[in-house]
UniProtKB/TrEMBL annotation:
Name of this protein: PCI domain-containing protein
Taxonomic lineage of the native organism: Eukaryota, Fungi, Dikarya, Basidiomycota, Ustilaginomycotina
Record's GO cellular component terms: transcription export complex 2
GO BP: poly(A)+ mRNA export from nucleus; post-transcriptional tethering of RNA polymerase II gene DNA at nuclear periphery; transcription elongation by RNA polymerase II
PANTHER family: NUCLEAR MRNA EXPORT PROTEIN THP1, UNCHARACTERIZED PROTEASOME COMPONENT REGION PCI-CONTAINING
Molecular function in Gene Ontology: double-stranded DNA binding; RNA binding
SMART domains listed in its UniProt record: PAM (SM00753)
Coiled coil stretches, renumbered: none
Region (Disordered), start-end ranges: 238-266
Length: 421
């Protein structure tokens, strides 16, 4: 326990503001640290919020008032989680994707206890995030991002553990519903932050990753009506950032205007948000546009996401984008480029390429028969693109048939034959 308290002193005495990396290690401990700290904390239950606040204030005199109290409260909640629940790193291990793997790590009651305790950590993190924007705890944002992501993953897995039908749209997912409702508040706070500081120094810098977490939850719940509120908050944050850049350019001397003007570019590399967050955001926006029937908008957003989703980001991300981009291209009458074909794995190719071939002929009867093959039909339904392909692809194929018929009639008119007309 003394080692943990010493790490608190070290985290808050490094500079006028705590180190982001050091603060993360205080809240989200590794599995090894969890095991060592759990036994030690059992004998030191006297370590509470007031004691932690005293340690922080001795190490950093600038930490006072509400900011100090909420920081100490968050650290206390993290210690309570360590004392009463399994290691969060084990429960949210990305290598484990099946229910039997999750249950091998902890029993269902232990998962429920972990969710309840981590919900407290999230609530206190949200309270710290909502501290007055005149003194935004920017050093805390990386920790809040990790806490939010782990809370979302924990709730998704607990819903699946509670019922094998939790992924069904008709099945209630109470833990994920609770999680998304808690996430909605910080998303709104980030979008409405009007602090007259550069975007990366305000809550607006957290708008996109908070929005991405919230969108992920809404898609899991199939509650897409609430997605527009998230998009609105992210747009508001972007607009505030542009307003700050505009005011900076207007007041800046001529020598600095040329170097600052790049912030107004549409190049994603010059946004305050990391490229990975922008790619994830565009992916969810594209999927939302598909559900709204705005196919061209969806194609634009998903194409953007694919273009900037480099191979280093992982095969799974590229595959997820292609699974929704290809049906948009099919409906719009486009053929996949060589670059896109080079990205396809065998599973995605078998799902879509036969449809592209029949669309190009065009052969409506064969297309419908291939589309309604049971295995393909069920896959497309799970992706929520089956109805879009079925209802909108026929128009393009009829257009192709009429075009070919007109060409044949034109040739027949030139030769004086009516064989094809």
């Amino acid at each position: 326990m003394e080692a943990y308290l010493a790490s608190i002193d070290a985290a808050f005495s490094s500079s006028s503001t705590p180190s982001s990396h050091a603060f993360i290690s205080l809240i989200v401990v590794t599995a090894q640290q969890h095991a060592a700290l759990k036994d030690d904390f059992a004998a030191h239950r006297s370590v509470d919020q007031s004691m932690i606040a005293q340690r922080i204030s001795r190490s950093n005199a600038t930490m006072t008032g509400v900011l100090l109290d909420r920081t100490a409260s968050l650290i206390e909640a993290a210690l309570q989680y360590v004392a009463d629940a399994p290691p969060i790193a084990i429960l949210t291990d990305t290598n484990d994707r099946r229910r039997d793997q999750w249950l091998a790590k902890a029993s269902l009651p232990a998962w429920q206890q972990a969710q309840a305790k981590w919900a407290t950590v999230f609530n206190r993190s949200s309270a710290l995030f909502s501290v007055s924007p005149t003194s935004p705890p920017v050093w805390f944002f990386p920790t809040f991002r990790l806490v939010s992501m782990l809370f979302l993953t924990l709730c998704i897995r607990l819903d699946r553990l509670s019922s094998p039908f939790a992924q069904s749209h008709s099945h209630r997912q109470p833990y994920l519903t609770e999680c998304t409702s808690k996430l909605a508040g910080p998303v709104r706070a980030a979008g409405t932050d009007r602090t007259s500081l550069p975007g990366h120094e305000t809550k607006r810098s957290a708008a996109m990753w908070l929005g991405n977490d919230c969108l992920r939850g809404y898609f899991k719940l199939n509650n897409l009506k609430l997605c527009e509120t998230v998009l609105k908050s992210v747009r508001e944050a972007n607009n505030r950032n542009r307003e700050h850049v505009n005011s900076t350019l207007e007041t800046a001397p001529p020598s600095s205007q040329s170097s600052s003007s790049t912030f107004m570019s549409d190049d994603p590399h010059e946004s305050i948000y990391p490229l990975s967050q922008q790619v994830t955001y565009r992916y969810y926006v594209g999927r939302l546009r598909i559900s709204q029937g705005r196919i061209r908008d969806a194609f634009h957003d998903l194409s953007w996401a694919l273009h900037y989703c480099h191979a280093q980001h992982g095969h799974r991300q590229i595959r997820s984008i292609l699974l929704h981009l290809l049906p948009c291209a099919l409906v719009l009458g486009m053929r996949p480029s060589r670059f896109v074909l080079s990205l396809l794995d065998q599973d995605v190719a078998n799902l879509y390429l036969p449809l592209f071939a029949l669309y190009a002929k065009p052969d409506i009867a064969a297309f419908e028969a291939t589309l309604n093959v049971r295995q393909r039909k069920e896959r497309l339904r799970k992706l929520n693109v089956y109805l879009m392909i079925r209802d909108k692809s026929a128009i393009g194929m009829w257009r192709g048939i009429v075009k070919r018929w007109w060409v044949l009639c034109h040739k027949a008119a030139k030769t004086g034959s009516d064989e094809h007309c």
